[in-house]
Amino acid sequence: GLGSKRPVSENAQKEQTMAQYDYLIVGAGLFGCVFAREASDAGKRCLVIERRPHIGGNAYTERLEGIDIHRYGAHIFHTSDERVWKYVSGFVRFNNFVNSPIARYRDELYNLPFNMNTFSKLWGVVTPKEAQAEIARQIEELHIDEPKNLEEQGLKLAGRDVFEKLIRGYTEKQWGKPCSELPAFIIRRVPLRFTYDNNYFNDRYQGIPEEGYTRLAEKLLEGVEVRLCTDHAAFRREHPAIAEKIVYTGAIDEYFECCFGPLQYRSLRFETERLEEENFQGNAVVNYTAREVPYTRVIEHKHFTHAKSPVTYVTREYPDPWSPGKERYYPVNDAENEALYQKYRQKAEGEGNVLFCGRLGSYRYLDMDKTVKAALELADAELGPRPRAPLVTER
User: Fold this and answer.
1) What residue ranges in 120-264 does DSSP mark as E strands?
2) Interaxial angle between packed helices 82-89 and 368-383, expressed in degrees from 0 to 180 and rounded to the nearest 10
3) How many Å separate Cα 242 from the centre of its chain?
4) In 186-238, where does DSSP find H-type helix?
5) DSSP E strands: which ranges in the chain?
6) Is 359 helix (H, G, I), strand (E, B) or coil?
7) For the chain, percent helix, then strand, then coil, each to nearest 5?
8) How big is the chain by its Cα radius of gyration, in Å?
9) Mean pLDDT of all residues in the chain?
10) 239-258 burial by CB neighbour count: b if 16+ within 10 A, else e?
11) How far apart, in Å, are the Cα atoms of 42 and each of 39, 56, 358, 384?
12) Would you say 32 and 26 are in contact if contact means Cβ atoms under 8 Å apart?
């Protein structure tokens, strides 16, 4: 069973003799959706349960007045993995959106990632050689040998101007602490590009589903039994042996009732507003890098898909300390939490029929393409070779 020590109902006792499903998939985010599709196509009986009232996890989009609203922050699909790109493109059509965010520091606007447009605006330089010389000069002046914290690390990597205007405030808001109190390893490198290219990602493929991510989740779950607003712990008590195996994409500490204490996360809070204007900021994503602005970015959803609408919807994204009951976004992968995760990981190995997966099950931040890839790899391991899904034109 599922490790439940509580008394079980008559229904549950009947179930114990005969599993109704091959897989109980906990969580209808991208990992759960992809695995459910693959297992279902391989002839397995699957049940997906989801705590929230919708499918799609944090990639969930809701269409309002012709605009797909990214309810849990900006989601841009990007990958260099051809198998992953072909896979998702086989279910829905993706547009050719290129992520080119703008950074706003007070009333100054800069291009991201840090590139020649950024440096030209900062210092009036024109050539890569001039930009490199200015950054080198600023780093040299600082005399930082071994960075002791994130502030020193950022200064050593990017120089004073880039760090002070574009990194410090944003990072302090994100983590809720001064950069001088954050570990240096959070910034391993600062992507400084000496070209006039505003494409944020280096990946070969990039885009957003034309009909929104919820449509992708719907296509993946076509024909699969799904129960929404269903809490896993309560469901497991009621149905301890409903499936041969469990694919668990929830939080690993929560599965074990946080018996070693909760793993730490950073959370986010979103405020979405409908505006009676056609175009509020001229770009999908504008990062606010000054410390005194309480939000880290403003998303104008219509620019993701070039939606035509006389109104617009914008979302302000506020970093938030995490506490039980809030959504988990960014794992705090410091030494203390890593040690705690290893304890849960060890305990998880004792749960023979439960596979802990996805970003919450593995306590690491995963981009969407890495999530899809991990789900396909689990499907390969569990289900063996299978025919690939037909492309979207045939579906």
Assistant:
1) 205-207, 225-227, 243-248
2) 90
3) 30
4) 213-220, 232-238
5) 21-26, 46-49, 61-64, 67-70, 77-79, 102-105, 108-111, 205-207, 225-227, 243-248, 265-275, 285-288, 297-300, 312-321, 330-331, 354-356
6) helix
7) 35, 20, 45
8) 23
9) 93
10) bbbbbebbbbbbbbbbbeee
11) 5, 22, 21, 9
12) yes
**Residues assigned a catalytic role:** 189, 193, 266, 297, 317, 365, 367
Q: Cα separation of 29 and 47, whole Å?
A: 14
In sequence order, what DSSP letters do the residues of 302-340 get, joined into one string? HHHHT---SSEEEEEEEEEE--TTSPP-EE--SHHHHHH
Dump the DSSP string for 373-388: HHHHHHHHHHH-S-PP
Q: Identify which of 232, 222, 241 has the alpha carbon closest to the alpha carbon of residue 90.
A: 222
Which residues, 6 or more positions from 308, have their beta carbon under 8 angstroms from its beta carbon?
Answer: 66
User: Cα–Cα–Cα angle for 71, 275, 53, nearest 5°?
Assistant: 25
Amino acid at 379: A
Residues 249-269 have pLDDT tens digits of: 999 999 999 999 999 999 999
Instruction: Tell me the residue type at 123.
Output: W
Cα(330)–Cα(364) distance, rounded to whole angstroms? 8
Residues 172, 174, 177, 181, Cα dihedral to 10°: -80
DSSP state of 40: H
For the record, the structure tokens of 57 come out as: 């996890």
DSSP H or E stretch at residue 120: helix 116-123
Whole-angstrom Cα distance, residue 379 to residue 389?
13
| CA nearest neighbour of 186 among 14, 335, 24 | 335
- What φ, ψ does residue 286 adopt, rounded to 5°? -125, 120
Residue-wise pLDDT tens digits, 42-95: 999 999 999 999 999 999 999 999 999 999 999 999 999 999 999 999 999 999
CA 90 centroid distance within chain: 21
Tokens (6 digits) for 374: 């991990």
Nearest C-alpha neighbor of 20 from the set 285, 312, 239, 174:
239
